[in-house]
């Protein structure tokens, strides 16, 4: 759900403030046309389509949230499938209404044959209603393309119902290498304590704020909390909290809030513009432009968010190439990323959180089965990987498919994750906005008494919404 | 007459009457039918469906009675929306009617009235989204962007001039947080050297967290280690931060800078100031002819006088005291500052509408009564209060009530004007319907329940207004 709002707001403010920016992706799209052409030749011989290469024909409908650039990219993914099978694919990008639209379509009795939704909760709901079909027999060996963590997220009552096509690694910190250099930091932090030390170093430099914190309606703060929680307490504890088997008033949550307060500093000392500034200018994607400005100098060093952040990085930036990065917005500025660090000695350093889009089969036809099998194949994901702005949880997708070092690192972290947990707030059906508001509340006032009050409130809200 | 005849026929021969009625009216019916079908499809059906949804669970599969309504009144975020609607209804309609009236009365007696009115009316023509974004900029926290804070800054700077090295109070900076080498905080927000110095000795003090922009503006040069002077005290205050040696906080590094224009004071062992000076462009200073004794060097607090930090007009801080209250009480009693900012903006948008309606009412007033008042020696103010306003009462009521309906449904200005962090505290019923029903998952039950409540709130006001407009009495 989150990225939808994100994308929507991102596009909205960009247009309204007239920051006309030819997307980096658009540039790559031109290159992509040639890539796609060559891909389709490879694909027609590929194993994924070997069975269906005898031109099935007919048509199939598919819905997803992607619009504009993402829609073009996804259509590029579908093109080789259409060419080799003769099936016409009718794609509809539903934007932020994806869940609502699908719900209405299922209720109305005319759902699309295949749909991609951004949360596993919808998959469970639809599986419970028998509105989607089990996939194990249809996918065959393609099921082996996914790690256990991902298969579990697409499983309902021991049956596999989904294919995770696109993923977002939220375990990332994006930073401006030139600002790090100007502050005298030569290597990115690998431990939690090093991150705090680096923050102090940047603050001592006096010119840049260490962190531009995205606050928006609270979801970026929830993302930050989730990163910290999983790094401190591990995936099992995280899943328990997501299911409200662990209470919000538990010490694990309290400790996480304490770490978060350390990161932001006393009254937001480490944040751009302090706490007030973070609240006033932390709307998505404004919070990213202070680290990666389209013109002028950056004012902050880093920003915590997932890979969808790169779509808000101005087009004159190149993915981190170390020494040549400059502070000038006109002369080779770059962006780079490092993994959200874990506390020293934590056993959960390789546990990461994120989100993704899962493909489900609603109507079983020859065409729709072929399509979902195609989406599970590494060759389909490789096409979008090559276009940029995309990471696949499919472990068979070669890292060489990714166009730059940043997305390659992102994909590597995602596929090699020891445990993957889904963005917790998206699983809090019924009280997600309240959770976001609570996160903002703790951010502003991390005093022990307030944390206790808010945690008690969160337990009440979770109980009311989840029923336990 | 037709209906009378029809009534008469009804008593005697209903069947015949029906037949005749159809024959007489089929043309009209044929013309009305598309409209009626259209209304049934897009007004009546959705209304009934919404009421039905409000009594069912989230996936609309199970009847839950009034459960959704119960959760509406027990959810703090929705109570906040109710509270904000009340704030809007209490403040907005009154002020917009009042300002509309003032403008309408005043424009009656100026030249170029039409041009003036056109300017006032213009905001209604703009999309609310555009207006909201303009006002969001006007109220921006940064004085370089928001004109309201720019004015506040100008006024604030008259009373307290920022120092050469203003502290950033937005991040809670204090003079002590700048101390790095041989400097410590002292009461009154000044910094004092840790080590004592005798005449003939030197002092070095290192500060950090000075932005490169400040150094550039002040023309800071590479720091030079102070040279001793006979019978005097020499020293250096420098920016103790080197990108090449971030952990070195004791010695001067070539990429560091001296701190120019710092006002310093030499204090003796009893704590009284004996001399003062200002550092040069490389951060050096000296006190000559100092009497024997032990001294400390103070960096005066005036160097660090903070610069203005904007008022967070679009923030959620309450203008009513709510600290210490529980969450529910806070939801119901706090009035976030952003409510006022948005109401001001919304008045700017709608004042023109009020002016046009009231202006039309004014034009239709009986001039003789006004002239009579003038002849009787009534002042302008008396005429306005005792004659014009009472005679305009019906129009004023219509404007007022229309505005009440308008703000019960207020939505787009909040969505576009409130920064993300204030969206929750500034929400209204209409915005809650949208957020609960269409974003972040589907909660059709609760969203429909809010819609039904909002409908019940608007309907009586609307009927009353319709009757008023038609000329009937309420």
Present the secondary structure layout.
The complex is a heterodimer of chains A (468) and B (474).
Chain A: H1 2-16, H2 24-45, H3 47-50, E1 59-64, H4 68-85, E2 88-93, H5 98-108, E3 114-117, H6 120-128, H7 136-139, H8 148-153, E4 155-156, E5 159-160, E6 162-169, E7 172-175, H9 177-182, H10 192-205, E8 209-211, H11 219-242, H12 251-264, H13 274-281, H14 286-289, E9 300-304, E10 318-319, E11 334-339, E12 351-361, H15 366-376, H16 378-387, H17 405-415, E13 419-422, H18 432-444, H19 448-466
Parallel strand pairs in A: 1-2, 1-3, 8-9, 10-11, 12-13
Antiparallel strand pairs in A: 3-12, 4-5, 6-12, 7-9, 7-11
Helix pairs in contact in A: 2-4, 2-16, 4-16, 11-12, 11-18, 18-19
Chain B: H1 2-12, H2 14-53, H3 67-74, H4 76-107, H5 113-125, H6 128-138, H7 147-159, E1 179-181, E2 183-186, E3 190-193, E4 202-207, H8 212-218, E5 233-239, E6 257-258, E7 263-267, E8 273-278, E9 284-287, E10 296-299, H9 327-333, H10 337-363, H11 367-375, H12 380-408, H13 412-417, H14 420-423, H15 429-438, H16 444-470
Parallel strand pairs in B: 4-5
Antiparallel strand pairs in B: 1-4, 2-3, 3-10, 5-6, 5-9, 7-8, 7-10
Structural class of chain B: alpha+beta
Q: What is the chains' assembly state?
A: heterodimer
Residue-averaged pLDDT of chain A: 84
* Sheet with most strands of chain A: 6 strands, mixed
Q: Rg of chain B from C-alpha positions?
A: 36 Å
Count the beta strands of chain B.
Answer: 10
C-alpha end-to-end distance of chain B: 28 Å
List the uncertain runs of chain B. Answer: 1-12
Beta-strand residue percentage of chain B: 5-15%
The run of helices and strands of chain B is HHHHHHHEEEEHEEEEEEHHHHHHHH
């Amino acid at each position: 759900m989150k990225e939808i709002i994100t994308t929507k707001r991102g596009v909205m403010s960009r247009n309204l403030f007239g920051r006309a920016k030819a997307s980096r992706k658009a540039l790559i799209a031109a290159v992509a046309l040639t890539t796609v052409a060559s891909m389709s030749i490879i694909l027609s011989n590929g194993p994924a389509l070997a069975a269906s290469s005898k031109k099935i024909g007919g048509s199939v409908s598919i819905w997803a949230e992607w619009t504009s650039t993402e829609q073009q990219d996804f259509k590029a993914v579908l093109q080789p499938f259409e060419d080799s099978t003769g099936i016409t694919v009718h794609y509809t990008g539903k934007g932020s209404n994806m869940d609502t639209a699908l719900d209405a379509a299922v209720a109305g009795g005319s759902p699309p044959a295949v749909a991609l939704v951004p949360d596993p909760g919808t998959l469970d709901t639809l599986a419970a209603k028998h509105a989607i079909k089990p996939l194990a027999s249809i996918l065959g060996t393609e099921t082996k393309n996914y790690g256990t963590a991902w298969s579990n997220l697409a499983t309902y009552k021991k049956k596999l119902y989904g294919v995770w096509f696109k993923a977002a690694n939220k375990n990332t910190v994006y930073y401006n290498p030139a600002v790090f250099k100007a502050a005298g930091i030569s290597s990115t932090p690998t431990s939690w304590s090093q991150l705090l030390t680096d923050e102090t170093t940047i603050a001592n430099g006096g010119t840049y704020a260490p962190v531009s914190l995205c606050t928006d309606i609270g979801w970026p703060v929830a993302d930050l909390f989730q990163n910290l929680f999983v790094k401190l307490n591990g995936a099992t504890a995280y899943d328990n909290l997501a299911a409200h088997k662990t209470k919000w008033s538990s010490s694990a949550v309290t400790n996480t809030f304490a770490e978060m307060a350390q990161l932001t500093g006393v009254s937001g000392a480490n944040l751009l513009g302090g706490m007030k500034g973070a609240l006033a200018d932390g709307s998505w994607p404004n919070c990213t432009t202070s680290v990666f400005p389209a013109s002028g100098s950056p004012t902050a060093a880093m920003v915590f968010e997932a890979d969808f952040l790169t779509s808000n990085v101005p087009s004159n930036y190149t993915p981190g190439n170390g020494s040549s990065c400059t502070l000038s917005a006109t002369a080779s500025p770059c962006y780079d990323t490092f993994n959200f660090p874990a506390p020293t000695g934590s056993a959960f350093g390789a546990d990461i959180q994120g989100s993704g889009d899962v493909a489900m089969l609603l109507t079983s036809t020859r065409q729709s089965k072929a399509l979902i099998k195609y989406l599970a194949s590494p060759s389909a994901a490789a096409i979008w990987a090559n276009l940029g702005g995309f990471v696949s949880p499919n472990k068979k997708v070669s890292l060489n498919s990714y166009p730059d070092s940043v997305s390659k690192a992102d994909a590597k972290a995602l596929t090699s994750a020891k445990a993957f947990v889904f963005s917790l707030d998206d699983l809090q059906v019924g009280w997600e906005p309240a959770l976001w508001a609570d996160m903002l509340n703790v951010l502003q006032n991390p005093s022990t008494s307030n944390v206790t009050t808010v945690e008690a409130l969160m337990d009440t809200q979770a109980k009311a919404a989840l029923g336990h | 007459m037709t209906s009378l005849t029809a009534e008469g026929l009804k008593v005697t021969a209903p069947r015949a009457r029906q037949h005749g009625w159809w024959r007489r009216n089929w043309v009209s019916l044929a013309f009305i039918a598309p409209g009626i079908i259209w209304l049934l499809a897009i007004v009546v059906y959705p209304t009934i469906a919404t009421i039905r949804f409000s009594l069912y669970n989230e996936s609309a599969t199970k009847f839950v009675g009034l459960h959704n309504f119960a959760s509406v009144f027990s959810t703090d975020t929705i109570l906040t929306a109710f509270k904000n609607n009340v704030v809007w209804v209490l403040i907005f309609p009154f002020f917009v009617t009042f300002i509309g009236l003032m403008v309408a009365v005043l424009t009656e007696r100026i030249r170029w009235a039409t041009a003036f009115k056109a300017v006032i009316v213009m905001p209604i023509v703009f999309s609310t989204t555009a207006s909201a974004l303009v006002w969001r900029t006007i109220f921006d926290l940064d004085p370089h962007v928001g004109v309201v804070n720019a004015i506040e800054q100008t006024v604030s700077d008259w009373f307290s001039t920022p120092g050469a090295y203003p502290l950033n109070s937005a991040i809670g900076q204090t003079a002590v947080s700048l101390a790095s080498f041989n400097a410590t905080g002292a009461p009154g927000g000044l910094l004092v050297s840790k080590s004592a110095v005798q005449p003939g000795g030197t002092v070095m003090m290192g500060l950090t967290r000075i932005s490169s922009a400040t150094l550039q503006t002040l023309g800071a040069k590479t720091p030079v280690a102070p040279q001793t002077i006979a019978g005097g005290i020499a020293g250096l205050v420098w920016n103790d931060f080197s990108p090449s040696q971030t952990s070195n906080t004791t010695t001067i590094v070539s990429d560091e800078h001296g701190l120019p224009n710092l006002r310093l004071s030499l204090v003796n062992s009893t704590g009284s100031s004996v001399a003062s000076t200002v550092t040069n462009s490389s951060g050096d200073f000296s006190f000559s002819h100092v009497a024997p004794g032990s001294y400390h060097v103070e960096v005066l607090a005036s160097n660090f006088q903070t610069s203005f930090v904007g008022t967070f007009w679009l923030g959620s801080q309450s203008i009513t005291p709510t600290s210490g209250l529980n969450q529910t009480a806070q939801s119901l009693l706090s009035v976030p500052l952003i409510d006022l900012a948005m109401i001001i903006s919304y008045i700017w948008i709608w004042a023109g509408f009020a002016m046009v309606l009231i202006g039309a009412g004014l034009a239709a007033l009986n001039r003789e009564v006004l002239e009579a008042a003038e002849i009787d020696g009534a002042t302008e103010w008396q005429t306005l209060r005792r004659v014009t306003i009472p005679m305009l009462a019906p129009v004023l009521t219509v404007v007022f009530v229309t505005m009440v309906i308008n703000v019960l449904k207020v939505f787009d200005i909040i969505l576009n004007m409130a920064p993300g962090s204030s969206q929750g505290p500034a929400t209204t019923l209409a915005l809650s319907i949208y957020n609960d029903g269409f974003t972040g998952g589907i909660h059709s039950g609760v969203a429909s329940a809010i819609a039904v409540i909002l409908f019940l709130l608007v309907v009586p006001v609307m009927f009353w207004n319709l009757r008023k407009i038609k000329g009937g009495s309420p």
